[in-house]
């Protein structure tokens, strides 16, 4: 199982082996092999596809941050549970007369705190989900802030109308059984303010996956986790320079994959941005191993499209508007060579996928795609959720065969 996991991890840049040299080597390799990591932009019309400032065909990898992996420091909760008071049997002296007046059993001030108009008990408090901080009553009107109150792997949940402190698992399973033989995809939150809002949007991502033709067998090999951590930022900036060009928006890949791995045992990740760093019509950006998605794009097939890049290594089929530079490799779902007619499979698919065709334009204008439309083609009008056969078999199946 470890070996299987390592396969994807390796392809997603093995973190524990990562050094500046390795990253440079990998990225140079990606550039050399022309592994296109494209933008997916849901355009407003069928004809309009915005590519922002990206030169098509270039890998879309952000300028890498300091190659030191960000360590997720587990803060040991400072909270010490209130010791259960030992009950000592009160000896009632037989000779003492029972007083006729019993004292009124008011909760002593030592056991309460005042929160606005509410009097709350010792041990109760408030949760700030954004920072995962509990402000807890310690009695005598002392409210003390405690970060990571719920302990490792847990987060506090804010509750309307009561002051009991609820804790929940930080990794919420949204698809799959959680079995570790599966590919673990972790959705990371950026700029969300509540777990419920974030989770509603993750549900839309799961719905989009279920709308594709990946089917039960393939999706059954994937766990999708939502990491309840609203306190992280991954965005690095706009127009980040990369070798030979720039990327419209970039993020901290090392931080993202490290967070996904250390918190939820992730093999790969997808960052969901609450539309705070939108760049025109860019719906998402992907590299092999992870992707960055804007919330508005959840109304389009963008999420599974980006996974097509980041998990299955697929390339874009929409038009880059230019011919391929010499030496460019078509990729899994495109072909350099035409066939005698567009309804005849391109030579590379003729034997294995006899029912596909060979349609001109697959990213580059002089490459050929297997079907007229697919999810790796453009968004907007006529966008479809289905992957074509070469994408399913040579892309998805080829990676998912390492998982069960
Ligand atoms: Zn794309």
UniProtKB/TrEMBL annotation:
Descriptive protein name: Uncharacterized protein
Gene3D superfamilies: Collagenase (Catalytic Domain)
Keywords of this entry: Membrane, Transmembrane, Transmembrane helix
Record-linked InterPro entries: MetalloPept_cat_dom_sf (IPR024079)
Organism: Candidatus Roizmanbacteria bacterium RIFCSPLOWO2_01_FULL_37_16
Molecular function per GO: metallopeptidase activity
Residue intervals passing through the bilayer: 20-40
């Amino acid at each position: 199982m470890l070996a299987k996991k390592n396969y994807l991890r390796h392809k997603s840049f093995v973190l524990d082996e990562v050094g500046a040299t390795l990253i440079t080597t990998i990225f140079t390799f990606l550039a050399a092999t022309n592994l296109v990591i494209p933008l997916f932009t849901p355009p407003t019309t069928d004809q309009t596809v915005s590519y922002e400032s990206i030169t098509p065909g270039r890998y879309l990898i952000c300028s890498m941050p300091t190659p030191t992996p960000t360590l997720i420091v587990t803060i040991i909760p400072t909270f010490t549970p209130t010791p259960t008071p030992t009950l000592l049997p009160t000896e009632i002296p037989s000779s003492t007369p029972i007083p006729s007046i019993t004292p009124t059993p008011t909760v002593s001030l030592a056991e309460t705190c005042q929160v606005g108009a509410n009097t709350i008990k010792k041990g109760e408090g408030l949760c700030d989900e954004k920072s995962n901080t509990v402000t807890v009553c310690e009695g005598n009107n002392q409210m003390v802030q405690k970060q990571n109150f719920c302990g490792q792997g847990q987060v506090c949940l804010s509750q309307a109308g009561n002051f009991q402190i609820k804790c929940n698992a930080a990794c919420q399973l949204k698809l799959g059984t959680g079995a570790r033989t599966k590919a673990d995809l972790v959705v990371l939150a950026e700029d969300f303010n509540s777990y419920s809002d974030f989770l509603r949007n993750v549900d839309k991502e799961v719905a989009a996956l279920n709308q594709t033709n990946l089917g039960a067998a393939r999706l059954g090999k994937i766990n999708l986790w939502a990491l309840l951590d609203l306190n992280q930022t991954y965005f690095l900036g706009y127009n980040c320079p990369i070798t030979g060009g720039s990327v419209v928006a970039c993020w901290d890949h090392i931080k993202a994959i490290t967070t996904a791995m250390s918190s939820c045992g992730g093999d790969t990740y997808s960052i969901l941005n609450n539309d705070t760093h939108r760049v025109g019509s860019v719906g998402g950006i992907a590299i092999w191993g992870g992707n960055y998605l804007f919330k508005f794009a959840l109304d389009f097939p963008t999420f599974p499209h980006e996974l097509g890049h980041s998990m299955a290594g697929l390339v874009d089929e929409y038009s880059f508007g230019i011919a391929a530079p010499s030496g460019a490799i078509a990729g899994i779902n495109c072909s350099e060579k035409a066939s005698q007619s567009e309804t005849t499979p391109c030579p590379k698919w003729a034997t294995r996928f006899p029912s596909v065709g060979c349609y001109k334009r697959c990213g580059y204008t002089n490459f050929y795609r297997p079907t007229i439309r697919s999810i790796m083609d453009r968004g907007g009008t006529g966008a479809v959720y289905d992957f074509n056969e070469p994408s399913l078999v040579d892309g998805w199946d080829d990676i998912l065969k390492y998982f069960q």
